[in-house]
Design goal:
Distance between the termini: 46 Å
Number of helices: 8
Strand content: 15-25%
Order of helices and strands: EHHEHHHEEEEHEEHHEE
Number of strands: 10
Strand order of the largest sheet: 5-6-7-8
Helix content: 25-40%
Shape: globular
């Protein structure tokens, strides 16, 4: 099949997870567009607002020379980024809830300031704004995603994938995140992957190393699910397996005009909170 990025099926860690969780959720968050605004839709909540803001501050450091990364105040950058999610923009019910969540983020950044080691080494930046490559040219499927941090390991000319975690729970052992990141790193830049870690910023002073998946295992897992996503799109088959579950029902509320529009998010999505 000729390569055509406009007709290709694009998949990512978040979209595949949506599909595995509930096909209807996948449709409402990744395919459906509001007929009036022509935008996709999403729901903002405090956890999403926190993760978005902390990631914005930390990922922005990778483009700076190592010696400049902590020269400017991270708390000041955080306060500036927080303006994008304050109040209803972040799904907060009241000022007390917002203050508590914001304070969690401040503590995460203080942890990084006190334990900056991985971020003070040379970092590799993938040149694509949204890293992507053809997972399969025959199936016309493209895999895409943004990697939080790539630490350069000088000893063996390799890279260390670091994923910042702002949630309270460990990543599941069967998560597709590292397999997908490993595939993207392998195909979107020239260095081999020698390490992979999750940095649980809420509680750990340093990244927690995990075993990187083999390229073959990663590809097989991701490609198998990506083909199911493509098949669902070809058939227009997105029914919830439970006839309406806790994951898709909040998005159905948007279609029923039972949610409140609060603004347009960073990816051009119409953002809502549940009434």
């Amino acid at each position: 099949m000729p390569q055509d990025k406009y007709s290709a099926v694009w998949v990512s860690n978040s979209s595949i997870n949506d599909f595995v969780t509930c096909p209807r959720l996948y449709f409402l968050r990744n395919v459906y567009k509001d007929p009036d605004t022509k935008h996709k839709i999403n729901i903002i909540n405090p956890s999403l607002a926190l993760g978005q803001t902390v990631h914005e501050v930390l990922e922005g450091l990778s483009v700076l020379p190592a010696e400049m990364r902590l020269k400017d105040s991270l708390p000041d950058k955080y306060n500036t980024a927080w303006e994008k999610v304050t109040g209803k923009l972040g799904g907060f019910r009241d000022a007390q809830e917002e203050e508590a969540v914001k304070e969690r983020g401040e503590k995460m950044l203080k942890r990084v300031i006190d334990n900056p080691a991985p971020l003070l080494n040379k970092a590799i930046k993938i040149k694509q704004e949204l890293p992507n490559y053809y997972l399969s040219t025959d199936e016309n499927i493209i895999l895409c995603g943004r990697i939080d941090w790539l630490e350069y390991i000088t000893a063996d000319d390799s890279v260390h994938i670091i994923d910042f975690k702002t949630g309270k729970y460990d990543e599941r052992s069967d998560s597709l995140q590292l397999p997908i990141y490993s595939l993207l790193v392998k195909n979107c830049q020239s260095k081999k992957v020698s390490k992979a870690s999750y940095w649980y910023l809420d509680r750990n002073d340093e990244p927690t190393e995990v075993e990187p998946p083999s390229s073959e295992d990663a590809y097989n897992k991701v490609f198998a699910l990506a083909k199911k996503v493509k098949q669902a799109r070809l058939e227009g088959s997105y029914a919830c397996r439970k006839g309406g579950c806790r994951d898709c029902r909040p998005f159905e509320a948007i279609l029923k005009k039972e949610a409140e529009f609060v603004g347009v998010g960073g990816y051009g999505q119409d953002m809502y909170i549940l009434k």
